[in-house]
Amino acid sequence: MHTTDDGHRWTTTPITADLLRGALDLERTAHGILPHRLPARARAQCADPQLAMVEAQPSGVRLVFRTRATAVELDTLPTKRLYAGAPPRPDGVYDLLVDGVLADQAVVSGGKVQVVDMGAGTTELRPGPVGTLRFTGLPGHEKDVEIWLPHNETTELVALRTDAPLTAVSDRGRKVWLHHGSSISHGSDAASPTAIWPALAAALAGVELVNLGLGGSALLDPFTARAVRDTPADLISLKLGINVVNADLMRLRAFGPAVHGFLDTVREGHPTAPLLVVSPILCPIHEDTPGPTAMDLSALGEGRLVFSATGDPAERASGKLTLSVIRDELARIVAERAADDPHLHYLDGRALYGEADAAELPLPDRLHPDAATHRRIGERFATLAFTGDGAFAGNAP
Length: 397
What we know:
Helix content is 25%, strand content 28%. It has 11 helices and 22 strands. 42% of the residues are buried.
């Protein structure tokens, strides 16, 4: 314990696994602890820099503890992203929850900067300093405190200080919901880490979230299936399809068996858990046009992020994938498997965001939802999955 000039008597607590939720692995770095959302064995099986970046962004990862402290400090080393020729991105937001209610938000300046040149296809990592996050004015009674880390900013945890001792929060008996999906599940353009749609849905349903939404990387990778298989969970959802189209990764002949293999692997570890397969939300550019998806570099230079589909609709005849094709295939696969797997369910993603929603809340960059749309999708999912005859109905408090 030490006292600073502002009169706070700080207690430093080591950041250990029992204080963190939502991470599958913790890496000790030169500065502190780096949460990962894929285990080391999975990371070793893929050299894709996109995957390395997004799995280390702590979407859904939060520090959770119980304390009487009225002030909390967290030293972190963030990694910011800067796209060459575009305006700087906003700093990642940290959300503070007290007894489950959003109480404050803050950002950490400084940190490393990853400069991405989309035109040249290069990246450069520039070093930077550790920053300090401070929350004050917390109520002095015993309470649960959660600090949700930025969903879109790699964050090394350096030191945690409070002006009263803290303890890890015991298991509250809530169900664990593990969700895997694309950048939309990762958080895309949500306003803050508790405002991404899976976090909103989890809060509404009263379940603990493990978010394996991996921007650009929901590609039916076997190592991701094994990560889902090996992670303790009561409820599992898999939102599949859009990234396979974005990357123009495979044809229809490969897609079906890949989905079957992914589901087989998940079922090895969770044979009877409610398992919900979710097809893509409406994305007009890719409904009937294959990928790959391209970024408009001229718009990027103007500070606008816009995506387009570069495939030819005629190529569907040769097995190229569109969202319409993928929804039909996922619905077929789930219907066939459900005959022997009564706990397997399907949800058409257009029930979360469909044509009427697109008319009211169009995707700003033609690919990702904005903050208001994240809220709508989260509320819809909570209703469709956790109530009525939904796949997870009766499985939440």
